[in-house]
Specification:
Blueprint (H helix, E strand, L loop, with lengths): L5 E5 L8 H13 L4 E6 L2 H4 L20 H8 L6 H10 L3 E6 L2 H9 L5 E3 L7 H8 L5 E4 L5 H14 L4 E6 L14 H9 L3 E5 L5 H8 L4 E5 L17 H18 L19 E4 L14 E4 L10 H4 L12 E2 L7
Parallel strand pairs: 1-2, 1-8, 2-3, 3-4, 4-5, 5-6, 6-7, 7-8
Antiparallel strand pairs: 9-10, 9-11
Helix pairs in contact: 6-7, 9-10
Length: 336
């Protein structure tokens, strides 16, 4: 899961509660290069209560004008789909897993033998739920949007104590869509250094730039919402990636992985053929035997057939051992 970058296509509500669309999304995610598909296991009643008071009304440019309960009615994935969606995903070679939002969804997902679990940013503070998931002793991904450093530490501590086998933290800005100026991706390096855990990015920005930057900063997991088309008006489609965009994201990440390489100085095999274009010391004015080398008759120029430029201070003031014509690369046999 750590190498290469583990790339998750977050299906979320983008199936529009149409089973065939969910199947198409899984297929397209595979074709687009995803390593995993992730769904969300909840019902409106496991998320909230059906109330129309001011506390439950949503204020959001896209989701406003309805209650939380109404939103989750539209966005939830029918639980009777999960078994066959998991089977289809695994037949394609994709890892299938889901975000759990309460203990009943954990139990449900465990009955399906999912290989790992996910905690959403909004549930990071639910330490009771994190403890319950940790007791499954399965890998756990935790999104950290909106959470303080102390809250993240508490979540990690709780998951470890409960027995979570491997914990991955995701830097996240829980805005939909997220504004790049508030991503604060440098936090990824701090999280890696402090927690000594794999760290990734749950990316709600439009485009691929933030995800690419995150990988260059050490992110080993990238999660992006995935839709067949933003023209499909599902609750999450407006900030989700279409298949061609997702494929571009995957391709760019794979290039970044190759480019990051390792700490290395000196000549790469590819550069060896270009060594000739480095500078070296040449005689640039005809010289007679016994004549003194000066900055007027030797010079550092391209190509690389003479002594290294750094040797010039060891040569100046010494004498030529023979006649040398202009354009001759300098070597030690020519120096007295």
């Amino acid at each position: 899961m750590l190498k290469p970058t583990f790339i998750i296509a977050e299906i979320s509500a983008n199936h529009g509660q149409n089973y065939n669309t969910a199947i198409k999304l899984i297929k397209k995610a595979k074709e687009s290069g995803a390593n995993a598909v992730k769904f969300q296991a909840y019902t409106p009643d496991t998320m909230t209560i059906n109330k129309n008071t001011k506390y439950f009304k949503i204020k959001h440019p896209r989701w406003g004008g309805q209650t939380l309960y109404q939103l989750y009615q539209k966005a939830s994935t029918p639980w009777e789909w999960f078994k066959s969606l998991k089977k289809y995903s695994e037949e394609l070679g994709l890892i299938f897993f889901s975000t759990a939002f309460d203990k009943t969804s954990v139990d449900f997902l465990e009955s399906l033998h999912v290989p790992m679990h996910k905690i959403a940013s909004f549930e990071l503070g639910d330490l009771d739920l994190i403890e319950y998931i940790g007791k499954t002793k399965k890998p756990l991904i935790i999104s950290t949007g909106m959470s303080t450093f102390e809250e993240v530490k508490a979540a990690v501590r709780t998951a470890k104590k409960a027995g979570a086998r491997r914990i991955t933290l995701l830097k996240c800005s829980s805005s939909y869509p997220a504004d790049p100026q508030y991503m604060n991706l440098k936090t990824i390096r701090h999280m890696i250094q402090y927690f000594k855990l794999p760290v990734g990015l749950s990316d709600h920005t439009i485009g691929i730039s933030s995800s690419i930057a995150a990988v260059s900063l050490g992110a080993t997991v990238i999660e992006k919402h995935f839709t067949l088309s933003r023209k499909h008006k599902t609750p999450d489609s407006f900030f989700s990636m279409e298949p061609d965009e997702f494929r571009s994201l995957v391709n760019h990440i794979r290039v970044v992985e190759k480019s990051l390489g390792k700490v290395s100085y000196g000549i790469t095999p590819e550069e060896r053929k270009n060594l000739v274009f480095k500078r070296s010391l040449f005689v640039v004015r005809d010289m007679g035997k016994g004549e003194t080398f000066t900055r007027e008759n030797i010079k550092s120029i391209r190509p690389n057939h003479g002594l290294p430029p750094a040797e010039i201070t060891n040569i100046l003031g010494k004498c030529a051992t023979k006649n040398i014509i202009t354009g001759t690369p300098l070597n030690w046999k020519m120096v007295e």
